[in-house]
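Hey, resending since the last one bounced:
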Amino acid sequence: DLLVSFALRNLTGIKGEGKSGAFLLFTKDRRFILKTATKEERDFLWEFLPYYLQYIKKNKDTLLPRLFGVYSMKHEGIGGVVRFIIMNNIFCSHVYYDPIEKYDLKGSKAGRFVPEHKREFTSTLKDLDIKRKLWIPQSLYPKLLVQLEKDSKFLATHKVMDYSFLVGVHYETETNASQKK
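The structure tokens again:
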């Protein structure tokens, strides 16, 4: 599945919106993401992966992304090496349409907004951009809090302190309802 999804004719790329400036490639079927990484990120992940894999196996409901590999590839261009991570795309789901809104939440107020002049329809917004309450089914709320706490403790144990909670808001409109057909 992974190799078929990454066939060259099936890729679309964008420059990431985050501070890292990472480049992202999405498979056409939207199931996987290839994200460029720095040497430091790659080195950390190589050391972290055994612990991560053990955690994922024990915590099937984790909200952490599923990593499928951390790679380095030599080439003859500038820099000589490309480092990248392959992971799942959390917005590829059973829902018939893409999220209307996306938020990258860190639980902070410092610099956590996207200026109006930089916003596009597809922009991922930040903590201070939320202008309304987000609804979570009451039955899921306690599970969500427990899992967020478990995941946060796991990351803190491994000194991972810069992480986000990515939230997609889905609701049906006339436009996206036609995508179900």
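The first strand starts at residue 11 and ends at 15.

Sorry for the duplicate.
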